[in-house]
Amino acid sequence: MTKFFILAFMLVPFPYDDLMIVQEPTFTDVNECETHVLENWNQLTQWLEIEFEGAPIKSIICVDEEVVKALNIGSQV
Predict the structure, then answer these.
(1) pLDDT, tens digit, 9 for 90 and up, residues 5-41
(2) Which residues, at least 6 apart from 8, have a Cβ–Cβ distance to it below 8 Å?
(3) pTM of this prediction?
(4) Fewest C-beta in 10 Å: which of 4, 10, 47, 73?
């Protein structure tokens, strides 16, 4: 079964990482993921801004595990 993850892009100055893969919770389809993001928008954005030390959020999307693997950023999913 394919898993879906929340992927957040932050506006962070170079050379810092500007991408966060939210590994928990995972979802079984994109609609479930998008619903979770919309229902938990405030908590999610507050957490991301803390993690990125106040950097603004550029975008948040839901992607399947193949997209995450293709990013090849060194973390295992």
Answers:
(1) 999 988 876 655 688 889 899 999 999 999 999 999 9
(2) 19, 20, 22, 44, 48, 57, 59, 60
(3) 0.78
(4) 73
